[in-house]
Amino acid sequence: MRAKATRNKFDGCPAPVAAFGSPQSDTNITLGNEYEVHALSVFQGVVCLQMVNDANIISWLPSWFFEISEATIPGDWVCCLPGENLQMVLGPEFVAADEASYNRMVELDSESVAPFWQRVDAKAQPGREP
Question: What pLDDT shows up at residue 128?
Answer without folding.
Answer: 47
